[in-house]
Amino acid sequence: MYQLEEQENACLLRPQQPATHAIIWLHGLGADGYDFVELMPQFKLPTECQVLSIFPHAPVQSVTINGGRPMRAWYDIRTTDLLGDVDEAGIRVASQKIHHWIEYCLTQGLTADKIILAGFSQGGVIALHVGLGGQQPLAGVLALSTYCPLAKTLNQHKETPITMMHGLNDPIVPLAVAEASKQVLSKNGYQVAWRAYPMQHQLCAEQVQDIEQWLIEIFCH
Questions:
Q1: Cβ partners under 8 Å of residue 9, min gap 6
Q2: Is the predicted pLDDT of residue 155 greater than 90, yes or no?
Q3: What share of the chain is helix, strand, coil (3-state, %, to 5)?
Q4: Residues 6+ away with beta carbon under 8 Å from 31
Q5: 3-state DSSP call for residue 199?
Q6: Degrees (nearest 5) of the Cα angle 124, 130, 135?
Q7: Angle subtended by helix axes 122-133 and 88-107, to nearest 10
Q8: Residue 135 has pLDDT above 90, yes or no
Q9: What is the pTM of this model?
């Protein structure tokens, strides 16, 4: 169904037919692009949706909250104050890397309204920042177990559908932090769908089914 292509800073799943849509999946802290590769083939999407999936790898860098240990990270996390002590410069640098992949999708003949950004935890922060602050509105943003520390600075593309999904018992990104981000985005005029699940900092089977339905709604609307 898909062909895996490995590049230096990403892996890609290419559909058998020319791509009609694209999803850029952004992994969480300490993981890599392969974290979500096995997820995409599970989705039963309409045959007319030929989806190019891109899984970038975050660069290896020192992460303060983990004792300065180097690991794949989109930006530094200095303290547990996720909304107050923010590596804004790091978020902006990471966002530029993802803009590169959006441009790549455009070179493949796709338009911005056929591209989704999806991200888990740190990756969700970047997905929201890029999807709501880029040059063109995208098809949608899927924010998983994440938050939006720069929500007050985002004021573009309010027509872009956003879905946030979170674990009720998340010990890494507390539910209250995610809910606060959702509230700020809503106050800024964004339309944010919210779903919570009885889980921790992870994905669950019910959520995967909901993601599949969301993708179909976005791609086939």
A1: 56, 57, 97
A2: no
A3: 35, 25, 40
A4: 72, 120
A5: coil
A6: 160
A7: 70
A8: no
A9: 0.97
Model pLDDT for residues 36-69, shown as the tens digit of each residue: 999 999 999 999 999 999 999 999 999 999 999 9
Catalytic residue from among 35, 76, 87, 170: 170
Which amino acid, residue 129? H
- Return the residue matching tokens 């096995």: 38
State the Rg of the chain over Cα. 16
Q: Which residue has the tokens 């292509």?
A: 5
The separation between the first and the last C-alpha atoms of the chain, rounded to the nearest angstrom, is 23
| Residue among 27, 76, 87, 121 flagged as catalytic | 121
pLDDT over 90 at 203, yes or no: yes
Residue 53 has what pLDDT?
Answer: 98
The yes-or-no answer on residue 121 being catalytic is: yes
**Tokens of residue 67, six digits:** 């004792």
Domain 2-219 has CATH 3.40.50.1820: yes
Strands 10-15 and 2-7: antiparallel
Q: Which of 117, 118, 121 has the alpha carbon at shortest distance from 170?
A: 121
The three-point CA angle 13-17-23 to 5° equals 40
For 177, the token pair is 């932090």
**Active-site residue flag, 201:** yes
CA distance 124 to 107: 24
Q: Which phi and psi angles does 136 have, rounded to 5°?
A: -130, 145
Token code pair at residue 26 = 């952004």
